[in-house]
Design goal:
With about 300 residues, the protein is an alpha/beta fold. Helix content is about 45%, strand content about 20%. The chain has helices at about 1-10, 10-25, 25-35, 40-50, 70-90, 115-125, 145-150, 185-190, 195-200, 215-220, 240-245, 255, 290-310; strands at about 55-60, 65, 105, 130-135, 155-160, 165-175, 175-180, 200-205, 230, 250, 265-270, 275-285. It is elongated and about 75 Å long.
Amino acid sequence: MRDQALFDKIDLHLIRVLHTVLMERSVSRAAVRLGMHQPAVSAALKRLRDLAGDPLLVRSGAGMIPTDAGLRMVEPAARILRAAEVLFTDARGFDPHSASTTFRIAASDYLDPLFLPQLMAQIKAQAPLCPVEIHPLSADAHYHAHLSHGEIDLVIGNWPEPPEDLHMGRLFGDEVVCLVNANHPAARRGWDKSAWLDAEHVAPTPTHPGARGVIDEHLDALGLQRNITARCAHFGLIPAMVAQSLLVLTTGRQYCERFLASGPLVILKPPIEFPRLMYYQLWHARTHSSASGAWLRERVRSVAAMLRKE
């Protein structure tokens, strides 16, 4: 009976507060994200602590961290929230004109720079009441965990071999090229393999610890290593860096061509053969049968097809 009495005191709102507080590790930030007043979040956290018999969140230095019990609650809380959203959304069917489902997409800006803006425009035009969150693929986050915990719905990126434990949809392929300053020595006299490897390369910051980009994975397979002298987590800023230096950016042609008119830049072919970059969208089995998830994936496919035709 005690378990039933405890269960009766828990509602979905309380689970949402629990998950948000544990993820944000701050009552004030959680209040902003939840659209609540801070005292209301503090009161809900007190109830949660009483129910759990654990402080859930404790001070550590200038911030706060979850307790072991709190950490164990993150994934179950995320599953409950996502299950509730799918339960009621898909029970009614997904009508984009009236739905208010939150779409959470993780993507790096190494895609075509028009991709995410046009995807956002298409979603908001067809599903005006649906909030959209674009999350980065950053070095301190792992998309597998975010997908399984329900913190994101979809990951868009490029991999030489997409993970087998996730559902995958191919979007497009692209030729590997180099973007350099128009005054770069290679733009005037060309380069061979040795000169290209020795040049100063700029590369994106790895998406998670230990990750290797597709360019360097291919070079590793050939027993080669390029001279990376700069890394940047903001891929959209790299072309401007290249335009003002002798750095070499190696990535997809479709991405590079968008920047040719913005500065003294030219595209060169690398002296090493690379396989085409393959871009995919990945999603978890948790959302595979979701009507709203299927609608979102179709929007992504639509934008990718449109950009391929330009």
